[in-house]
């Protein structure tokens, strides 16, 4: 009996040591997003056997993701509360480094698009944003140029009439990059609006969407105007960010967007099955 007790004790101790030594933080993460708080709703994530994200489901709405035979994301549908058919549809085209074109359809009408150029599969060189006329010709477009340092976007559009600078970042994994990897496009999360300030539906800040880590402070400025400060207040647990409060106080306005995350984490293989 004493031998049995000793064996059980040793096994339990070894298990505790293994668990405590598992590092979920620096470098490649052993975690994936389990739930995502976006647009004032918690979305629960569903993954397929290949580890691809297939659905974000809330109580009132859902976001679906579709993949071709090569496991490339080709479409995503957003169902708003009460929708029988998707209100917003994204379609995607791919190149060697990742998604090269995103087309937005709202209520079945092509409204916007992006053309993406890459430096590497993890870093974007530029995004050309397009707005379409009713006949699907391009009515307006502008280009955003990206500058990276240490895997993070530190400047957008240097030298342009509208510029954004990210002043500081934490050292933790970016959950938007986890979501990006889960749809097979590691450079950026392709669903939602790219924005400089929190004003649009399903918006995500540029620097959060494209950076390896989580921004802490930033500012944007127009030519001949004073720079306008922004803050990102992050909450952490277990080596990951669990909440992001993005606040823009520019021009005497207080615009705030909240994001939050829950995770599945494990030791062993980095790819969930």
Considering the chains and any ligands shown, give keywords for the structure.
single chain; 273 residues; mainly beta; Porin; 16-stranded antiparallel β-barrel; two-stranded parallel ribbon; 18 strands; 12% helix; 51% strand; disordered N terminus
Care to describe what's here?
The chain is mainly beta. The protein has one domain (37-265): Beta Barrel (Porin). It is built from three helices and 18 strands. It has helices spanning 2-20, 175-182, 206-210; strands at residues 31-38, 41-47, 53-57, 62-67, 73-79, 88-94, 99-106, 109-120, 123-132, 138-149, 152-156, 162-169, 193-195, 203-205, 215-222, 228-237, 240-248, 255-265. Strands 1-2-3-4-5-6-7-8-9-10-11-12-15-16-17-18 form a 16-stranded antiparallel barrel. It is globular. 30% of the residues are buried. Residues 1-21 and 23-27 have low confidence and may be disordered.
What can be said about the biggest beta sheet? 16 strands, antiparallel, barrel
Assess the beta-strand content as a share of residues. over 45%
The overall pLDDT, averaged over residues, is 86
Q: Can you tell me the residue ranges where pLDDT is under 50 for at least 5 consecutive residues?
A: 1-21, 23-27
Number of domains: 1
Tally of DSSP helical segments: 3
SSE pattern, N- to C-terminal:
HEEEEEEEEEEEEHEEHEEEE
What's the CATH architecture?
A: Beta Barrel
Shape: globular
Trace the largest sheet across and list its strands. Answer: 1-2-3-4-5-6-7-8-9-10-11-12-15-16-17-18
CATH domain class: Mainly Beta
| Proportion in helices | 10-25%
- Cα-to-Cα separation, first versus last residue: 39 Å
The Cα radius of gyration reads 21 Å
* Overall strand count: 18
Within the CATH hierarchy, at the fold level, what is the topology? Porin
Structural class: mainly beta
């Amino acid at each position: 009996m004493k031998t049995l007790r000793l064996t059980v004790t040793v096994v339990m101790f070894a298990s505790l040591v293994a668990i405590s030594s598992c590092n979920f933080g620096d470098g490649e993460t052993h975690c994936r997003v389990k739930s995502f708080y976006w647009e004032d709703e918690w979305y629960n994530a569903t993954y397929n056997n290949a580890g691809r994200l297939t659905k974000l489901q809330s109580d009132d709405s859902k976001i679906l993701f579709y993949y071709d035979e090569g496991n490339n994301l080709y479409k995503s549908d957003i169902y708003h509360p009460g929708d029988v058919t998707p209100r917003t549809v994204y379609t995607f085209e791919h190149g060697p480094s990742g998604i090269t074109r995103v087309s937005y359809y709202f209520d079945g009408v092509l409204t916007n698009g992006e053309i993406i150029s890459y430096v590497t599969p993890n870093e974007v060189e530029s995004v050309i944003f397009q707005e379409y006329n009713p006949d699907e010709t391009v009515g307006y477009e502008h280009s955003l140029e990206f500058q990276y340092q240490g895997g993070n976007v530190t400047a957008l559009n240097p030298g342009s009439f509208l510029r954004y600078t990210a002043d500081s970042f934490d050292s933790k994994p970016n959950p938007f990059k986890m979501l990006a990897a889960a749809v097979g496009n590691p450079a950026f999360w392709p669903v939602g609006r790219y924005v400089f300030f929190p004003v649009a539906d399903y918006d995500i800040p540029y620097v959060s969407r494209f950076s390896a880590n989580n921004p802490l402070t930033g500012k944007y400025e127009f030519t001949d105007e004073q720079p306008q400060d922004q803050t990102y207040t992050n909450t952490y647990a277990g080596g990951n960010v669990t909440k992001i409060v993005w606040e823009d106080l520019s021009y005497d306005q207080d615009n705030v967007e909240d994001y939050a995350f829950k995770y599945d984490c494990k030791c062993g293989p980095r790819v969930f099955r």
